[in-house]
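Fill in residues.
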C-alpha cells in the first residue's frame, strides 16, 4: 500500500540535486515577487517577467532528472542570469 501511495501521490518528490536547486530558485522568485508587490512604491516589474525564470526552473529540473546534467546546469545558469539581469534583485545596477 505504501508503494502505491508513493507512486501515485508523488511522495519523496525532492530526490535529486536538480529538485532542490530549482525549488530554491523558485522559492527565491516567490519571495522577490511578494517583497516587491508589498512595497510602498509602484512595482517596476510585471508578473509576466517572472514566467521565463519559472519555466526555466521547470525545464532544468526535468532535463536534470532525465540524466542530462550539463544541459540542466546550463539552463540553471541562464535562469540565474535572467533573474540578475532582468529582475535585478537587491537593486543591482547594470
Amino acid at each position: 500500500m505504501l508503494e502505491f501511495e508513493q507512486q501515485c501521490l508523488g511522495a519523496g518528490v525532492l530526490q535529486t540535486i536538480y529538485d532542490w536547486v530549482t525549488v530554491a530558485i523558485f522559492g527565491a522568485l516567490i519571495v522577490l515577487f511578494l517583497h516587491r508587490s508589498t512595497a510602498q512604491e509602484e512595482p517596476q516589474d510585471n508578473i509576466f517577467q517572472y514566467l521565463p525564470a519559472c519555466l526555466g526552473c521547470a525545464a532544468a529540473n526535468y532535463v536534470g532528472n532525465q540524466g542530462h546534467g550539463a544541459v540542466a546546469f546550463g539552463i540553471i545558469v541562464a535562469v540565474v542570469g535572467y533573474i540578475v539581469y532582468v529582475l535585478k534583485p537587491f537593486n543591482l545596477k547594470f
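The mean pLDDT is 87.
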